[in-house]
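Minimal example, chain plus adenosine-5'-diphosphate.
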Amino acid sequence: MIKERVLFAASEIYPFAKSGGLADVAYSLPRALSSQYDLCVVMPLYQLVDRERFTIGSLNESFEITMGEVNYSVELYGCEYEGIRYYFIYSPLLSERKYLYGSPEHGYEDNAIRFGIFNYAIVEMLKRENYAIAHLNDWQCALVPLLLQTQDALSTKTVFTIHNLAYQGVFEKKTLEQLGIDEIFYTLEGIEFYDQVNFMKAGIAYADSVSTVSPNYAKEIVTTEFGYGLEGFLKHHQSKLIGILNGIDTLQFSPSSDKTLLKLYSGLTGKAINRRAYLKSVGLKGIKKPLFIFIGRFTWQKGMDLLIETLPSLATFECNIAILGEGEAVYHTALESIAKSHRNIYLEFGFDESLSHRLYAAGDFLLMPSLFEPCGLNQMIAMRYGSVPVVHKIGGLADSVISEKEFNTESTDGYGITFDRANQGDFIAAIEQAIELYENKRRYNRICRHNMQCDFSWQESAKEYEALYNNQIDS
Ligand code: ADP
């Protein structure tokens, strides 16, 4: 059987570069699809990508991209990693930077041009080789469907996935010319957004299919509360919009084979050893108290304001709290000032993949008070490591965590504590519920064991992507 060719593009991919869940998805979804398609993956070659470790070499293929009046040189790099072919786009403006997108507070001023180069380079790849499907992810690749409108010779179909609608890639009008995009696309139906250029809007307008990362988020983004100004536009395109729940890579996140852990485990005794070792290593006292963990980007989306507001009250409970993350400076400062007066709070600032795994293994409860959450991976990873999620019931969290009050051993769902509104009262009530559950050791352990057996893999969701691709190929 000849497999159809698929080019999967994303601005970050684990383990080359990761700032959040997109990198995990861009690593694991292609792997789940690779048995069905002749699939390769493309991303920018950032400065921080370790070329030596992954034996990333030049493919001796370079070309020029002309945007506006300016030429940008591009060189293709590549490597094979765990059976998947990866391409990397090198161009000085895109690549020679410390961060992927800029500091947590401000994206680089020339991000429109940087990722414009990335989009044009993807189109060049599509022109050089025949791909049936280009799967584009988030605003950083969203211009491709628009650019393909002027490539009549190409029959490639496009699937555009929204991982987070809050980041749309909105730039001043003058970037239209700098990107070499014709004025005919600068319309209400196209890339124009309140007299600015909106990359995400171009993806939604011109892609053949649009998906997002959970069924519930697909419903939410057509409403004013979650649509970030694009709700009407998305409603208009709703017939081609589908929500497919993300999975996690169950090999990458597996307590029974995770080399970052002190002790591998598939049951709660092994987990307890990791937990004890973590508490000891960071000096948190009280082995019997529940350990609440938080892992994530320090940004308003993750409910940082609610977490910080609630933290002093949470710290007065008989519990320990460990927080791992990085992001906006105001949140670092606020957390530090609270932690100073509470010895049961431990802070780890930075992005550390191994440490995050050890924390999932150590934690009893994972806090996720997110204001919105397109899918969220932390809650699935936590359940796999036997840590019960405490989540605001929105987006993909509502799709993947069922209230422990409805616990049913026969079900294949994962269970945790859910709360309806992102306010202090509801959050504290959820924490009290967690502590009460923890005191009922038998029930708590049953829920942990059940969650650890749940299937959070890509198996089911990959089938939905296959159907999406195949529908496009057959149309
Ligand atoms: P996001 O909105 O950031 O994409 P997700 O829940 O989809 O959120 O995915 C977050 C991913 O990033 C998870 O794999 C999580 O473990 C990881 N992560 C977040 N912050 C950190 C950190 N500071 N160190 C290590 N891993 C992190």
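The domain at 268-453 is CATH 3.40.50.2000 (Rossmann fold). The chain has two domains: 5-247+459-474, 268-453.
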